[in-house]
Amino acid sequence: LNRLKKKEKVAFLELAHHVARSDGDFSEEQKTIIAKYCMEMQMEDIEYDETTFDIYNTLDKIQNHRSRKIVLL
Q1: Could you give the residue ranges of the DSSP H alpha helices within the chain?
Q2: Burial code of 16-43, b = ≥16 C-beta within 10 A, e = fewer?
Q3: What is the pLDDT of residues 13-64, one digit of tens each?
Q4: Is the pTM of this model over 0.90?
């Protein structure tokens, strides 16, 4: 994850938050996992807003083929 560019890191966190909240429950375990992602990427967590989340816009931020593999894994 630390190999991603800044905008790709933000996109990754947007996706992580979206998946974590997809069942309507954002548990402490999920918060801990996202905090670990942030530590690995050496950045602060993002402000996630479910009402404005657009998966297509988020995925467009990850254009490098290598970065797409990193995010997918």
Answers
A1: 6-21, 28-41, 55-60, 65-72
A2: bbeebeeeeeeeeebeeebeebbeebeb
A3: 999 999 999 999 999 999 999 999 999 999 999 999 999 999 999 999 999 9
A4: yes
Q: Which two tokens stand for residue 35?
A: 């905090």
**Distance (Å) of CA 3 to CA 7, 12, 30, 44, 72:** 12, 12, 22, 16, 14
Residues contacting residue 9 through CB under 8 Å, at least 6 positions apart: 1, 41, 43
